[in-house]
């Protein structure tokens, strides 16, 4: 059976430290933002969605300045949001008290659609997870995942929601248990070597286990 792009993306991402689905997700989010700023900044539908979302969420908004020549595109779409907010915060003196007016303004300012990057990211993550579940038994992907850090708890949980085949579920859980056991042992060794009695031993691969643990427990930085 012919493999799609997600299959090969998973194999490549598994060679890096951290959850491979997080790695794919972050790269796709960056590509999405690039595409908007370089190709679709004048698209009426894109601009309308950006206004309705009140801009991107904090995490994804700060992907925009990563790169060169983006200032104009950023200025164009951000001006839309600024003008929208200015329009929405016009208050008529209609006799209401400050709290009532404040609540009305708050209601007007709430986004009416989700951050577009978040929506795109979630859809692409599901595609990657489906590819993982469908191909988890194939030799190349199985070997790649075995060399990886395993899935973060966010993506492991989502994979459990998506899985519908007993063998895939068994292999998914076995992979996660194996990787979490390895991480637990690295954390234990890091803690042990921080004891003054063993400090002269020096750190090995467990040296960054505390940092890796953050990514596996909560998801890699920049994804959410």
What layout of secondary structure does this protein have?
Layout: H1 5-13, H2 20-39, H3 44-52, H4 58-61, H5 71-88, H6 98-109, H7 116-135, H8 139-147, H9 153-162, H10 166-193, H11 209-218
Helix pairs in contact: 1-2, 1-7, 1-8, 2-7, 3-5, 7-9, 10-11
Short key terms for the protein model shown above:
11 helices; mainly alpha; 67% helix; 224 residues
Summary of the model, kept short:
With 224 residues, this protein is an all-alpha fold.
Explain how this protein is built.
The chain has one domain. With about 220 residues, it is mainly alpha-helical. Helix 1 (about 5-15) packs across helix 2 (about 20-40) and helix 1 (about 5-15) runs parallel beside helix 8 (about 140-145). It is elongated. The protein is built from eleven helices and no strands. It starts with a helix and ends in a 6-residue tail after the last helix.
Count the domains: 1
**H/E series:** HHHHHHHHHHH
Number of helical runs? 11
Tell me the strand percentage band.
under 5%
Q: Could you give the count of β-strands? A: 0
C-alpha termini separation: 33 Å
Oligomer: single chain
Helix-strand makeup class:
mainly alpha
Radius of gyration, whole Å: 23 Å
Mean pLDDT: 91
């Amino acid at each position: 059976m012919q493999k799609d792009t997600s299959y090969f993306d998973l194999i490549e991402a598994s060679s890096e430290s951290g959850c491979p689905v997080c790695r794919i997700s972050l790269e796709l989010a960056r590509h999405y933002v690039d595409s908007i700023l370089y190709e679709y900044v004048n698209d009426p539908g894109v601009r309308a969605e950006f206004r309705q979302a009140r801009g991107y969420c904090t995490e994804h908004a700060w992907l925009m300045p990563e790169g060169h020549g983006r200032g104009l595109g950023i200025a164009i779409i951000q001006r839309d949001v600024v003008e929208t907010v200015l329009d929405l915060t016009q208050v008529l003196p209609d006799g209401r008290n400050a709290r009532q007016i404040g609540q009305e303004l708050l209601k007007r300012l709430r986004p009416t659609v989700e951050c577009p990057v978040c929506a795109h990211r979630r859809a692409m993550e599901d595609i990657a997870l489906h590819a993982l579940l469908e191909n988890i038994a194939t030799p190349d992907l199985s070997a790649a995942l075995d060399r990886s850090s395993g899935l973060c708890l966010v993506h492991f949980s989502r994979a459990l929601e998506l899985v519908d085949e007993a063998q895939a579920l068994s292999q998914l859980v076995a992979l996660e248990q194996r990787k979490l056991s390895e991480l637990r042992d690295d954390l234990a060794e890091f803690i042990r070597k921080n004891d003054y009695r063993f400090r002269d031993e020096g750190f090995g691969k467990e040296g960054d286990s505390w940092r890796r643990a953050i990514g596996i427990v909560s998801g890699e930085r920049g994804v959410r």
